[in-house]
Design brief:
Structural class: alpha+beta
Strand order of the largest sheet: 5-4-6-7
Helix content: 10-25%
Radius of gyration: 19 Å
Largest sheet: 4 strands, antiparallel
Number of strands: 10
Number of helices: 2
Order of helices and strands: HEEEEEEEEHEE
Number of domains: 2
Distance between the termini: 56 Å
Shape: globular
């Protein structure tokens, strides 16, 4: 039994490392090839004593009404204007697009009323809070499957804050 114990531990470690590297490669691919989309922000409290300085982000596309059909997991369908800013069209469960020009962003809904796209926190260096208070947009990269990755915050002129 002891011989198999170390074999099982080694196999689990190899699988864990494989999964970790696979997820890093997928994120790097998304950064390189993803489409940049700007989401209007509804800012929340920008401080955390335990985690340091960060901004909790709330996106305008996440504001829902009780008439919205909302699934626990699904896709937020958006249209992107000429400036790269996304406007929500609807929420849907499947990945099929109905109209030309629509783009998908995956979401999760907790308690059926709060929509999260997975990029709700932006961490920054201590002392830089004033710089990011001017943020009006969150910049995310998305792929054709609706996966998203937050890449930065943007000001009113849609320029990346650095």
């Amino acid at each position: 039994m002891k011989k198999y114990k170390w074999l099982i531990i080694a196999l689990n470690l190899i699988l864990l490392l494989f999964y970790f590297n696979y997820s890093v490669i997928k994120k790097e691919e998304l950064l390189k090839n993803g489409q940049l989309v700007l989401l209007k922000l509804d800012p929340v409290d920008p401080r955390s004593l335990m985690q340091g300085d960060y901004m909790a982000l709330r996106y305008e596309i996440s504001n829902i009404s009780y008439s919205d059909d909302l699934y626990k997991r699904g896709y937020c369908v958006v249209l992107i204007d000429s400036c790269g800013v996304a406007e929500r069209v609807r929420f849907q469960k499947d990945i099929e697009l109905q109209n030309k020009g629509e783009v998908l962003i995956k979401y999760n809904a907790s308690d059926g009323r709060n929509v999260y796209i997975g990029a709700e926190s932006f961490f920054f260096q201590e002392g830089d809070a004033e710089k990011y208070e001017q943020a009006k947009y969150g910049g995310i990269k998305i792929d054709k499957n609706g996966n998203s990755l937050l890449i930065g915050l943007y000001d009113e002129q849609r320029k990346k804050i650095e």
